[in-house]
Amino acid sequence: MSRSDDWNKRNSFQEFYGWVSPTLRGYIFRVCGDAALTDDIFQESFLKYLRTVRWDMKEQQQKAFIFKIASRLIIDNFRRIKPQSLDLVEKSGEYKSASLGYGEHLEPDMKKIFTTLKPRDRSLLWLAYVEGYSHGEIAEMMGLSSKSIKVLLFRLRGAFAQMLRNKGYSPEEQP
Amino acid sequence: MKIATCPWEEQLRKAVAGGGPDPALRHHARQCPVCRDVLAVSGWMLKFRDLTLDTMRAPGPLPAPQELWDSAQAGRTIDLGLANKALKPIYVYRKIAWLVSAVGSAVLVLLEFEKIKSLLASLPGLDPLAAFLKKTAENGGGPLTQAIAPAALGLAAIILLIIVTGMKRGDTCPKHFVPSK
Predict the structure, then answer these.
(1) Does the distance separating the beta carbons of A25 and B17 come in below 8 Å?
(2) Are B41 and A129 in contact (CB under 8 A)?
(3) Tens digits of per-residue pLDDT, A69-90?
């Protein structure tokens, strides 16, 4: 590898990191529910990504690739240990919200709803509705079939929307 | 269980995540019950994402990309502990192979003792050994004694061979691996 090639890859990684890292960290945190574990998985994801990435991939593909790595690491972690409740994060005093207004109520309510879901379902919701990945892409990331993802998302969407509506949220209320 | 689907669902999710659907897609979402739910859940989830990112901004900055880059580069060199662990079965089996060879040779020497004795007797310069064996036999040493003496000599030779080759291998087999570029 030539020096200029190395330099280009390094710069390209810095740009990619600036673009992807906040949302990746948010995703890991919401699925894991633990700040320390989030940081571990976040760093491990990037290290694995850097060791295996094909630099000729498009940025969107690279983003999907690192989300796949993170998802697999989260799954592996949950297979090893029991998942911790999101409430633990609140008790530890870390990542306290400073938001007010609509989000002041929405965030704790969403957190509560997320706590009741399985980690896999949290991942599915985030990947589908925050990142906008297709069923096929999510299937590839989670190691499931596209058909299963379609069914799981259908059930989740209905249940999730119902839970939020029961708490008094309506789609029209969204800013 | 019947699953309500819409062909526009994936496109709608992607559009909302990417900044917002175009007016035509938004119009469709108002008519379609599936897409209405998709739009609602996407909106809540995106708001939740924004709140999460705001919340996480406070505790500390993200690790520097340079730091991760350097760590990844460092990780490309071979971990000596892991490499030695991976090679351990080979070392163990090599030792077992030497041991089996040594025991096998000793058994062979014992089984073929008569042939070895006659061979040694026919070799020039080994007369003192032949005389020693003969004397041992005449002095009341049974066939067992006659067998043990050359077997012990053979075993000593094999052990010496193992030690010498082991020392030589120790010189050529480095304890630390140098990763190839």
Answers:
(1) no
(2) yes
(3) 999 999 888 887 655 543 344 4
Residues of B with CB under 8 A from a CB of A: 1, 3-5, 10, 13-18, 36-56, 58-59, 62-63, 65-66, 68-69, 71-73, 75-76
User: Is the Cβ pair B68, A47 closer than 8 Å?
Assistant: yes
Q: Give me the DSSP letters along A84-107.
A: PPTHHHHHHT-S-----THHHHHH
Residues A149 and A139 sit within 8 Å (Cβ to Cβ): yes
Range of the domain at B128: 80-172
Q: How far is B93 from chain A (nearest CA, A)?
A: 32
Chain A residue closest in CA terms to B46:
A130
d(CA A70, CA A38): 10
pLDDT digits (tens, 9 = 90+) for B61-92: 778 888 888 888 776 655 667 778 888 899 89
The total domain count for chain B is 2
The complex's ipTM? 0.80
Write the DSSP symbol of residue B178: -
A98 to B58: CB separation less than 8 angstroms, yes or no: yes
Cα–Cα distance between A163 and B37 in angstroms, integer? 12
The answer to whether the pTM exceeds 0.90 is: no
Residue B115 lies in a domain: yes
Residues 6+ apart with CB under 8 A from B63: A42, A43
Tokens of A141: 């990331």
Q: Is residue B178 in some structural domain? A: no
